[in-house]
Every structure is written in C-alpha cells, then in structure tokens.
UniProtKB/TrEMBL annotation:
<feature type="domain" description="GH16">
    <location>
        <begin position="38"/>
        <end position="308"/>
    </location>
</feature>
<dbReference type="InterPro" id="IPR013320">
    <property type="entry name" value="ConA-like_dom_sf"/>
</dbReference>
<keyword id="KW-0378">Hydrolase</keyword>
<keyword id="KW-0732">Signal</keyword>
<dbReference type="GO" id="GO:0009251">
    <property type="term" value="P:glucan catabolic process"/>
</dbReference>
<feature type="signal peptide">
    <location>
        <begin position="1"/>
        <end position="21"/>
    </location>
</feature>
<dbReference type="GO" id="GO:0004553">
    <property type="term" value="F:hydrolase activity, hydrolyzing O-glycosyl compounds"/>
</dbReference>
<protein>
    <submittedName>
        <fullName>Glycoside hydrolase family 16 protein</fullName>
    </submittedName>
</protein>
<dbReference type="InterPro" id="IPR050546">
    <property type="entry name" value="Glycosyl_Hydrlase_16"/>
</dbReference>
<dbReference type="Pfam" id="PF26113">
    <property type="entry name" value="GH16_XgeA"/>
</dbReference>
<dbReference type="InterPro" id="IPR000757">
    <property type="entry name" value="Beta-glucanase-like"/>
</dbReference>
Length: 342
C-alpha cells in the first residue's frame, strides 16, 4: 500500500500541467543591430549565382545595406550594367555572429526580394559543420516568380519525413537547392521526403506553403508578415507564417515580448518536421542565421527558361537589366531570437 506521502506526490505529478517549453529573449536585431551582429560574406556564391557578394563597408557606402533606428535593408544593385567578365551583380549575404541551440526565431519582415532571376533565402546552418553535419534549415526560400514559400531541411543520412504531417503546407513538389559545394543541377527533380543532402542532388525534404501571400510579390503587396521558426530537440522543426493583415497572428509574435512559446492558438505550422522520424540530436546543433540574395545560379538559373521571365538567359538578364532589381531587397522590421531556459 502506498504511504500518504507517496500518494500526495503521485497526485501532484498527475495534476501538474504538461510541460510547455518557454523561450526567453536572447537577441534582438533591429536597424543598426545588424551591423554589429552579422558578418557580410564575400566568398564566391556556393550556389553559383551571378552575384558579387560585397563586404560591409562597400555595402554601406553604396547603400546596398542601410540601417536606421527601426529598419534594416539589404539589396542587390539596381543601377549598374554588369560586365560579362565580372563576378556578377553586387548583392549581399550576411551571417549572424551568434549561434543558437533550441530556439524560436521570430522575423518581422516588411519586404523580401522579388522578381525574375532572384533567389532569396532566410535560413540557418550549423556553426560547427562541416555541412551538412549539424543541419541546414531553409525558412524562406524561392526563385523567380514563384508564388509561395518553400521550407526545407538538408541533413546527414537517416533523417526522413512522412508525407502526412500536421502542417498546412504540402510536402513539396518543387526543388530546394541550398547547397554548399555541389555541382550545378541540370534539371528539376520531384519531391523527396528524405532530408539526406547526399541524395537527390541535395534536394532535401521540403514543404511548400499553401497560405496566400507567403512569398515574393504577393508577400510584399500585403505588407510582408511574420515568419517564426522553432528548432527543438523534442518538438522538431516548425515554421509558422502570418501575413501582415492576418488577425490571427499571436500577440507574442507581433509585439515585443521577452518570452514566447507556441500554444494551441497558433494553429498548425505551415511546415513541420517532427523529431520522431529524424533523430534531432545527431542531425542538428547550434545554428547561425543567414540572409542572402543570389541571382540565377543552380536553382533560379536552371528553371529561368520556364519561369515566365522571357526567352533570354538568366545571366544576360542579370547583366543587362539593372532596373529589374529595384524590388530585389530585404527590409527587416525586427529579428528576435528566443532560447530555452538552461
Ligand atoms: C538608402 O536606402 C534607404 C532604404 O531603402 C533609403 O531610404 C535611402 O533614401 C537610401 N539613401 C540614399 C542616399 O540613396
Ligand atoms: C549548444 O549545445 C552544446 C551541447 O550542449 C554546447 O556544447 C554548445 O556550447 C551550445 N552552443 C550554444 C551556441 O549555445
Ligand atoms: C535511424 O533513425 C532512427 C529514427 O530516429 C533510429 O531509430 C535509428 O537508430 C537510426 N539508425 C541509424 C543507423 O542511425
């Protein structure tokens, strides 16, 4: 027979609410915070884009990067004709100095790069690497005139996803190619549920959003919105999106909060990658945050002829049409990173 003491303890355990992970504000990036919090990368684009990633002083002096008290803008050049022998059109790729283990990344975005030849991405990658060790999570990604967002993971082996998951998006039918040192892809591939980057030409496992206004021109016309990515050893990887005028956006997301946690009011994420079919600890570790804007390259370039952008080549389009890139810019209202209590 149980002692009274033991009964009291088991009652207390039974009545205790289910543990909900609370994430506390670790870093805020608004306006000038990006200047000190991120590194401007200048290497050749690993995805073979027609871009010249410029350093921070160049970006600031040419206004390709611009910070104010409440806004941060990064863009591709939209004024110069690009010489064929040059590395490409000036653009930016920035990586956070800090890396984060289990976390919630909350992005309030006013505008994303849009238009023919563009391939913007907001994503995270293992600081430890080398890629694909520690994983890659593409939160916002797409090319050319693509109408909706594609979320995908790229990992080491033995990580795959079921086709039926609790998400509003669909297991993707187009490709994602966020690669480090892969050869250019010759053509399109159909969807894979396997996140293993060594398979299917590094397509990864993806979810195509079905929510309206999640990407490109329609995202911008709606005034942007919020993207939230949860990276969790227990909950897996989840991405939510709310358009600017979506009144269901949780208060913890659209106001400046010092704590955030997903609850039932958030609804199903647009994309979910549960940890039950992919061991989290062996595939993911601390990630840095990246914004980039490449042009053409392995994905945008390879599908350019079928993307409704005209009959010329992607490279010629980039070289000769500076004004086509007037809307090829990121404008961030705020980026907040929340981490678990340790
Ligand atoms: C730099 O870019 C910002 C943001 O787009 C813009 O408001 C500002 O007018 C630009 N400054 C110059 C000198 O062009
Ligand atoms: C992430 O977690 C690992 C394992 O606990 C730890 O060694 C590492 O320092 C952590 N990194 C960060 C950036 O918190
Ligand atoms: C593959 O992953 C599954 C699910 O996480 C795990 O049970 C299994 O042990 C893994 N196999 C290998 C060889 O790592």
């Amino acid at each position: 027979m149980l002692s009274t003491h033991a009964v009291a303890i088991s009652l207390a355990l039974a009545l205790a609410p289910a543990t909900v992970a609370h994430y506390h504000l670790a870093d805020t990036f608004i306006g000038h915070d990006f200047i000190n919090g991120f590194n401007w990368e200048t290497f050749d684009d690993p995805t073979h884009g027609r871009v010249n990633f410029v350093d921070q002083p160049t970006a600031l002096s040419s206004n390709l990067s611009f910070a104010s008290s409440d806004s941060f803008v990064m863009r591709a050049d939209s004024t110069q004709v690009v010489a064929p022998a040059s590395r490409g059109r000036d653009s930016i790729r920035i990586t956070s100095h800090n890396a984060y283990n289990d976390s919630m990344i909350v992005l309030d975005l006013a505008h994303m790069p849009e238009g023919c030849a563009t391939w913007p991405a907001f994503w995270t990658i293992s600081q430890g690497g080398p890629w694909p060790n520690g994983g890659e999570i593409d939160i916002i990604e797409g090319v050319n005139l693509q109408p909706s967002n594609l979320v995908s993971l790229h990992t080491t082996g033995n990580c795959s996803m079921g086709q039926q998951r609790s998400q509003t998006g669909s297991a993707a039918f187009s490709i994602s190619l966020r690669l480090y040192n892969d050869p250019p892809l010759p053509c399109r591939y159909t969807v894979s549920p396997n996140c293993d980057a060594s398979l299917n030409n590094n397509q990864g496992c993806g979810t195509q959003f079905t929510a309206p206004n999640s990407f490109g021109s329609s995202f911008n016309q709606a005034g942007g919105g919020w993207y939230v990515m949860q990276k969790s050893a227990t909950e897996g990887i989840n991405v939510w999106f709310w358009s600017r005028n979506d009144h269901t956006v949780p208060a913890a997301v659209h106001t400046n909060n010092d704590m955030v946690y997903p609850d039932s009011t958030w609804g199903s994420p647009g994309a979910t990658f549960p940890s039950d079919t992919c061991d989290y600890a062996s595939h993911f570790n601390a990630h840095q945050i990246i914004f980039d804007l490449t042009l053409c390259g392995d994905w945008a370039g390879s599908v350019f002829p079928s993307s409704g952008c005209g009959s010329g080549t992607c490279t010629d389009f980039v070289n000769n049409n500076p004004s086509a890139f007037l809307d090829a810019f990121w404008e961030v209202n705020a980026l907040r990173v929340y981490t678990l209590d340790s």
